[in-house]
Amino acid sequence: METKIIKGDIVKERIFNEVKNEIAELKAKQNQVPGIAFIGFPGAPLSKYNIPLHVQTAVAAGFRVVKEIKREDTTEEDLFELIDKLNQDESINAIVLLQPLPAHLNPLRIVNRIDRNKEVEGFHPLNMLSTMMPDVREEIYPMCLPTALVEMFGEAGVRFEKDKEWVFILDDEFFSNTLTHMVVNSAAIKVVPHDCSMTMVNKSSKNLIRFFQRADVLVVVTKSPEYIQANWLKKGVCIIDIYSNLLKEVPGKSDPGRLVPIIRGGIQIDSVKNIASAILPIPGGLMTVVLSILLRNALTAFKNSLNIIQ
Q1: Does 107 sit behind a cis peptide bond, omega within 30 degrees of 0 on the bond before it?
Q2: Chain-centre distance of CA 41, in angstroms?
Q3: pLDDT reported for residue 183
Q4: pTM of the predicted model, to two decimals?
């Protein structure tokens, strides 16, 4: 069986160029550009790469960018004060709270403080409610992660058949983190077809391998790099690897003085070739597609502030 490796480059470039071109047009017509604020913490292993990536990509698209790097011991009160200031700033159309936060901060409480109209990832509780219950509350912005998955699979021509079993494997930490758990549940509602079954399993489950062997579609969210063993998997499984882990840093080939991150997800790609029917790997472009969609949502927020009809 040949394994289809799904990359995000085409989708990422298409969305990014659409956003960049529209911002240029709006700048010419309105003499204004959208503003986006990134709030980040330097403690997480990938932060020194993720924060610059978000800032540089937004600048390249034409956004006016505000970067707020906070100390690891920042209090909730201090963060609330910053968010309130950005909420009231009419030149800021989008506020992005880069995850993860320091352990003493409650991410759901912090995200809830952001003005719903400026929270463009889809993580605000009201925005997640819109994703989970669209008949009750209108969706302002599509949640970035499931939208990225849908667009990437659509570009790759992957279609999910009826009556397939989806299994989500999450670390205990992601189950106990209220925001992460809600995001995964909300994303699943958008991605998993209504005629398929779905199970969420803690990675510490004693019966974990049994769930692997049942999965037609396996979604892996773990901080354990290359954890999944090929002999656990069902032949023909489609694998979606979600969480990026910094494995190590190595000198760059063109510039040995610059360190380059080696990033891995929960799956060792080569080990599942000819077992999986398709894999969306890490690294492979998922997070850059998510970033492009985030910028598209931020542009929508800007247009909403100008009362421009979508």
Answers
A1: no
A2: 17
A3: 86
A4: 0.93
Domains (ranges, CATH) in the chain? 33-120 (3.40.50.10860), 144-287 (3.40.50.720)
Please identify which residue in the block is written with the tokens 């100390």: 71
Q: C-alpha distances in angstroms, 74 versus 78, 173, 178, 252? A: 6, 22, 20, 34
Helix (H) / strand (E) containing 167: strand 165-170
Q: How many CB atoms lie within 10 A of CB 130?
A: 22
Look up residue 239 and give its two tokens.
């694998």
* Nearest-angstrom CA–CA distance, 20 and 102: 33
Task: Look up tokens 């990536």; give the residue.
Answer: 53
The full DSSP string for 291-304 is HHHHHHHHHHHHHH
Whether the CB-CB separation of 4 and 153 falls below 8 Å is answered with no
Half-sphere exposure of residue 288, counting CA atoms within 13 Å on the CB side? 19
Q: Which residue has the tokens 């990675």?
A: 203
- Distance between CA atoms of residues 132 and 146, nearest Å: 12
- Is the pLDDT assigned to residue 92 strictly greater than 60? yes
29's CB contacts (< 8 A; 6+ apart) are: none
**88, two tokens:** 């009231």
How far is it, in rounded angstroms, from Cα 155 to Cα 280? 12
What is the per-residue pLDDT across 158-179, written as a single tens digit (0 to 9) for each?
888 889 999 999 999 888 888 8
Backbone angles phi and psi of 237, in degrees to 5: -65, 145
Cβ atoms of 265 and 241 within 8 Å: the answer is yes
CA–CA dist 234, 208 (Å, integer):
13
